[in-house]
From TrEMBL:
Keywords: 4Fe-4S, DNA damage, DNA repair, Glycosidase, Hydrolase, Iron, Iron-sulfur, Metal-binding. Belongs to the Nth/MutY family. It catalyses: Hydrolyzes free adenine bases from 7,8-dihydro-8-oxoguanine:adenine mismatched double-stranded DNA, leaving an apurinic site. It comes from Rhodanobacter hydrolyticus. Adenine glycosylase active on G-A mispairs. MutY also corrects error-prone DNA synthesis past GO lesions which are due to the oxidatively damaged form of guanine: 7,8-dihydro-8-oxoguanine (8-oxo-dGTP). InterPro entries: A/G_AdeGlyc_MutY (IPR005760), DNA_glycosylase (IPR011257), Endonuclease3_FeS-loop_motif (IPR003651), Endouclease-III_FeS-bd_BS (IPR004035), HhH-GPD_domain (IPR003265), HhH_base_excis_C (IPR023170), HhH_motif (IPR000445), MIG/MutY (IPR044298). The gene is mutY. Residues 37-188 form the HhH-GPD domain. Its EC number is 3.2.2.31. Pfam families: EndIII_4Fe-2S (PF10576), HHH (PF00633), HhH-GPD (PF00730), NUDIX_4 (PF14815). This is Adenine DNA glycosylase.
Length: 352
DNA sequence: AAATCGGGGAT
DNA sequence: ATCCCAGATTT
């Protein structure tokens, strides 16, 4: 009937975790607290925090009545204190709205701060045996592999598909165990690296295993479209064909390399150019884009030909930035950024 | 250095 | 509804 759930439950009976502190007793408050802690921290670490927390604040009402400082102190070391504040606030709301209990109604539950679809489902399933799916990181990994789902789980279409699968697999019987089982499988067998497919109860029908995709799924987050910055590069060339270069500062890209002077836009380029040389006119050269790992740089070269170097520059007396007029023959010896070298080479070939 | 995690908040 | 960020840990 539900081969996925049955295989998982059989595995869980033998290999799952049955001794986690929030399983004994398994009430809504303890499940909620554990799920919230587990959103950010691994089981091994959470256990100690959980035990201290419930010893100090064993019930939702006591949590609601506790001073925030105490809640934060109990949370101290777990990080992400916003979640502790949500927890505290939600407890107070439960006292106000729900008679001091976490609601058994899904919509009322997810209306509380810090409880979303997955945590809400986990509470209802684990504490009350209600048939609600969960979709935490472990489950996402199991399902993307089992069904061979490509695409980053963060993409809405993929996530939608995952919720759909999660729902279909969730059984009506033993929902609490099932929920724990699929999380345990993800945590101990279907791990992100070095999954132990040899011991997996779902190996028979796992698409990723069948197709050799286990290491490829879940798909990594697509490289975010890199921002594009724009710059105008000034090619100041004097009558002898020398080009003005500047040494870049120690910060930013191309630290310490010799490069063309830059400006934010054409106007600024003109202002800057006139400080270095007497200029007649400018010619826009074809723009091109240089790709860095973290952004794209669209370069608009602006050629000032027949520039007459200003005396101070010609004498190398300019204070900052360090700059010099270079012969094309000197360029090879200088450490030029690749796109600048390319630009100057094209210039030579094109206009020489 | 980059990915991760589930939920909140902005748009 | 859809995108983007949080905030600390892990890889």
């Amino acid at each position: 009937m539900k081969p996925f759930a049955n295989a998982l439950l059989a595995w869980f009976d033998e290999h799952g975790r049955h001794d986690l502190p929030w399983q004994h007793p398994r009430d809504a408050y303890r499940v909620w607290l554990s799920e919230t802690m587990l959103q950010q921290t691994q089981v091994a670490t959470v256990v100690g925090y959980f035990e201290r927390f419930v010893e100090a604040l064993p019930t939702l009402r006591e949590l609601a009545a506790a001073p925030e400082d105490q809640v934060l102190a109990l949370w101290s070391g777990l990080g992400y204190y916003r979640r502790a504040r949500f927890l505290h606030r939600a407890a107070q709301l439960c006292v106000e709205r729900h008679d001091g209990q976490l609601p058994r109604d899904f919509d009322a539950l997810v209306a509380l701060p810090g409880i979303g679809r997955s945590t809400g489902g986990a509470i209802l399933a684990q504490a009350h045996g209600l048939r609600f799916p969960i979709l935490d990181g472990n489950v996402k990994r199991v399902l993307t592999r089992y069904h061979g789902i490509h695409g980053h789980p963060g993409e809405s279409a993929v996530e939608k598909s995952l919720w759909q699968r999660a729902d279909t697999h969730t059984p009506t019987m033993r929902v609490a165990d099932y929920t724990q089982a699929i999380m345990d499988l993800g945590a101990t067998v279907c791990t992100r690296t070095k999954p132990r497919c040899g011991t997996c109860p779902l190996a028979d029908s796992c698409i990723a295993l069948r197709d050799g995709l286990v290491t490829l799924l879940p798909s990594p987050k697509p490289a975010k479209t890199t921002p594009t910055r724009e710059t105008v590069m000034l090619v100041l060339r004097d009558a002898r064909g020398r080009v003005l270069l500047e040494r870049r500062g120690p910060q930013g890209v191309w630290p310490g390399l010799w490069s063309l002077p830059e400006a934010a836009d054409v106007d600024a380029a003109w202002r800057s150019a006139r400080q270095c040389a007497r200029i007649d006119d400018a010619q826009a050269l074809p723009p091109f884009t240089h790709v860095f790992s973290h952004y794209k740089l669209r370069i608009e070269p602006l050629l000032f030909d027949g520039a007459t170097p200003t005396r101070s520059i010609a004498d190398n007396a300019a204070p900052t930035p360090e700059s010099r007029w270079c012969d094309t023959s000197e360029l090879v010896a200088l450490g030029l950024p690749a796109p600048v070298r390319k630009l100057l080479q094209n210039l030579e070939g094109h206009l020489a």
